From TrEMBL:
Reaction(s) the record says it catalyses: 5-hydroxy-2-oxo-4-ureido-2,5-dihydro-1H-imidazole-5-carboxylate + H(+) = (S)-allantoin + CO2
Record keyword Lyase present: yes
Top-rank taxon: Bacteria
Lineage summary: Bacteria, Bacillati, Actinomycetota, Actinomycetes, Kitasatosporales
Protein known as: 2-oxo-4-hydroxy-4-carboxy-5-ureidoimidazoline decarboxylase
Length: 176
């Protein structure tokens, strides 16, 4: 089940394009959604996708298969919370909640990110869509005490949410 507003839309054109895409083109498109090569290969292995739900189910299945190394590959494609990648419309859109935020709050977010990265060895990953800087900071502080195994499973879930949003967006983009 998805919270996507157009979940009932069948996205036939986009699904047909994914089904017909050469392997290299499909892989490139999927790696824009998630930078884990294993994830992209696993999702591609489920094609053709008869409908939106099948594509999202492929994301769910692929996420469950990822190792810690694969999760690190996936996180490498994400900007630090509070610092969207300049010129990257996806990063800027997903972190819209930090725009115009008080500098003191951004400094706290930076400090908390630094501590988290030192502890876990990777960026703090959260589905930032629709979240404010304050709620992301609260989540970061709440998750900081976790052990690495617990945090890896939370990251897996957050990545799945992000991928679902990105896959839905890909399906909803006008076809050329």
């Amino acid at each position: 089940m998805t919270n996507h507003p157009h979940a009932s839309t069948d996205a036939t054109g986009a699904l047909a394009a994914l089904a017909a895409a050469p392997d290299a083109e499909l892989k490139r498109a999927l790696l824009e959604v998630c930078s884990s090569p294993r994830w992209a290969a696993a999702v591609a292995g489920h094609r053709p996708f008869p409908d939106r739900s099948a594509l999202l189910a492929a994301n769910k299945a692929a996420m469950q298969e990822l190792t810690v190394t694969d999760l690190n590959d996936a996180m490498a494609g994400h900007a630090r919370i509070g610092k969207p990648k300049a010129g990257d419309s996806t990063s800027e859109r997903e972190q819209a909640g930090i725009q115009g935020v008080d500098q003191a709050l951004l400094a706290e977010l930076h400090e908390a990110n630094t501590a988290y990265e030192a502890k876990f060895g990777h960026v703090f990953l959260i589905c930032a869509t629709g979240r404010t800087a304050a709620t992301m900071l609260a989540a970061l502080r709440e998750r900081y005490p976790n052990d690495p195994a617990t945090e890896a499973e939370i990251v897996r879930g957050e990545l799945r949410k992000i991928n679902d949003i990105r896959l839905n967006r890909m399906l909803d983009e006008p076809q050329n």
